[in-house]
Design a protein that fits this description.
The protein is mainly alpha-helical. It is built from six helices and two strands, in the order H-H-H-H-H-H-E-E. The chain is 66% helix and 2% strand. A hairpin with a 6-residue loop joins strand 1 and strand 2. Helix 1 runs antiparallel to helix 6 and helix 4 packs antiparallel against helix 5.
């Protein structure tokens, strides 16, 4: 005799609705955080490219062309530029812009590569599996962002005109990169728990906290067929 399937109780239906809302909210927050980081990275690209171009267009002074030289700033500006140019001045006396900005471009590339890896894991639904490594990479690049923000702000009082504006744009983009990254850490930890575990090679899902497979179907196996006890 076939068993009668019972309808879910009110408690079960309420729990299902709450879990659905929780999962949707986690997905929304993670998506917004990811988009903020992507948009901020584009802003940093624009500001950094503009500063690099300004440096190349104003040789042999390089960035020195954008520093204040009024009497109240002249002495300090010359001291700042002496320190900054010491390591990046060529034998001909020109400002080596590529050498000066190499860390900045590496940091931006690190941010973009990290976002690409997060996006790939998100697409393949493997955030839960790799979240420890992902958040460790993100924390590293975010810490470097803070270092660079502090450096740009410390130079803000000495710069003027186009270089000053470009520095503010770059620092603003880095600040929003940090904001987006931090919210990805916070929302991503919960969002990853809504995803199933996967086998490393085959991509087969294993039961996780939500008990679902990769395609959202239940892992519960059908009942075994009835075997008579008086088998011949």
């Amino acid at each position: 005799m076939a068993s009668v399937q019972q309808k879910p109780s009110m408690v079960q239906r309420t729990r299902t609705v709450v879990m659905d809302v929780y999962n949707d909210t986690a997905c929304l927050l993670f998506t917004l955080s990811f988009l903020i980081s992507v948009g901020a990275s584009i802003v940093v690209l624009g500001g950094l490219a503009a500063m690099t171009a300004f440096c190349w267009d104003n040789q042999p002074l390089g960035l020195g062309a954008g520093f204040k030289m009024t009497p109240s700033y002249a002495a300090k500006t010359m001291e700042v530029m002496r320190i900054e140019k010491a390591a990046v001045t060529s034998t001909e006396g020109s400002f080596q812009c590529d050498k000066f900005f190499r860390f900045d471009w590496f940091l931006w590339t690190f941010q973009v590569v990290w976002l690409m890896i997060v996006g790939l894991c998100w697409y393949r639904r493997t955030l839960r599996k790799y979240q420890s490594a992902l958040w460790a990479m993100g924390a590293t690049v975010t810490a470097w962002h803070f270092f660079k923000i502090n450096y740009i702000i410390s130079m803000d009082q000495w710069t003027m005109g186009e270089l000053h504006t470009q520095g503010i744009i770059t620092a603003g983009g880095l600040i929003f990169c940090c904001i987006g990254n931090f919210f990805m850490f916070l929302s991503g930890a919960n969002y990853a728990l809504t995803m199933p575990r996967r086998n490393e090679l085959s991509g087969v899902a294993f039961p996780g906290m939500n008990g679902n497979s990769a395609d959202g179907k239940s892992f519960n196996q059908p009942d075994s067929p009835h075997v008579p006890s008086d088998m011949a």
